[in-house]
Amino acid sequence: MKKTLVALAALLISTAPVYAQSRLNVTVTRFGTLPTGMNFGEPAGINTDSKGNVYVFSRGNTQGPVYGSIAAQLLEFDASGKFMREIGHNSYGFGFAHTVKVDKNDNIWTVDKGTDMVVEFNQKGESILVLGRKQEAADAHVGGVERANPPRPPVLGQFRQVTDIAFDSQGKLFVSDGYINSRIATFDANGNIISSFGTPGNAEGQFNTPHTIAIDAKDNIYVGDRGNGRIQVFDNSGKFLRVLDQASKVPLPTDINAIRQPPAPPPPGSPPPTNKTIAPGAPWAICISPPDKNGEQFLFSSDSYPGSIYKMKLDGTVIGTIGAAGKQLGHFGDIHQIACPTGNLLYVAEELNWRVSKIVIH
């Protein structure tokens, strides 16, 4: 019965109406079979390794307020969706899951907003590198984590609500830091901090919650500047190159069933809103696929409203879209991270729908 429903959902998605910006022809299935009695919480992060195994960083295993207990589990599945193991159980670096990345050596990196830590695990599940430092008390006023206006300057070697990590071809690490510091921190392969670029704001090279980060084969850095509703591109020295905001101009689909609604437009003559988090094209998650046989890479981005995935060329040209916000399979609930092992295969972690979806683009 379940397979029949999935097949029917895939058929409905594949025959979806064509909009001014065409929808891609896709099959969407639910991914991941957990042991009896075990469930996903909010899947916040997802990534794949060289063997096709899938890692899900889920906000689960919590009791009480999310910041008062551990809301983070790192779960591994094989390519068929069979559960393999939990990694880092009771890790001191786990508090509130945000994203997970896998590097070229198949080491697994967790980015945790609750502990302000980035932790590298090897394939044995051992922690081998730690960036950042967890606050020593649960009180939000300890250690300067709370927001202030004007923002406090970043502290060397520490983060404030860190969000994501990416790696260039030379082994350098780029950490998006994040909700409060609104900067990109750069480390060498040994975890030594090299530099930092970006400050809070909406000018070129400034950020309003850099929420997601990816790097292409030429070591250009793509930062999902969510609060400003755009993707900014830099070289790997941090020099600003360009802004990509074409996704914000795609016509809205007609089948949006969003929980998060965009704010009402301001009265005539009023300044535009300063925060575009719930706006068309605002990047909650971005991913760049590896070069295909022609050397081409694709940029994927997802927003909360209208809740679509955008497949783009690296210059921001939108090739097509997938889905819209909603609860049924093939619609999405706040995609928080995208894994794109190829240009036609995606895994998405849906925060609001408590599921992982596998998407095949035909």
Q: Would you give an account of this structure?
A:
The chain is mainly beta. 4% of the residues lie in helices and 36% in strands. It contains 1 helix and 24 strands. It has one helix spanning 2-14, and strands at 26-31, 42-48, 54-59, 73-77, 83-87, 97-102, 108-112, 117-121, 127-132, 162-167, 173-177, 183-187, 193-197, 210-215, 221-225, 230-234, 240-244, 285-288, 299-302, 309-312, 318-322, 335-342, 345-350, 355-361. Strands 1-24-23-22 form a 4-stranded antiparallel β-sheet. A 4-stranded antiparallel β-sheet has the order 2-3-4-5, with no helix packed on it. A 4-stranded antiparallel β-sheet has the order 6-7-8-9, with no helix packed on it. A hairpin with a 5-residue loop joins strand 11 (173-177) and strand 12 (183-187). Residues 1-20 have low confidence and may be disordered.
Describe the sheet with the most strands.
4 strands, antiparallel
Percentage of residues in helical conformation: under 10%
Strand content: 35-45%
Trace the largest sheet across and list its strands.
1-24-23-22
Number of helices: 1
Write the element-wise H/E pattern from the N-terminal end onward. HEEEEEEEEEEEEEEEEEEEEEEEE
The overall pLDDT average reads 90
Q: Indicate the radius of gyration in whole angstroms.
A: 19 Å
Q: Tell me the number of strands.
A: 24
Structural class: mainly beta
The general outline is globular
Poorly predicted runs are: 1-20
> Termini, distance in Å?
25 Å
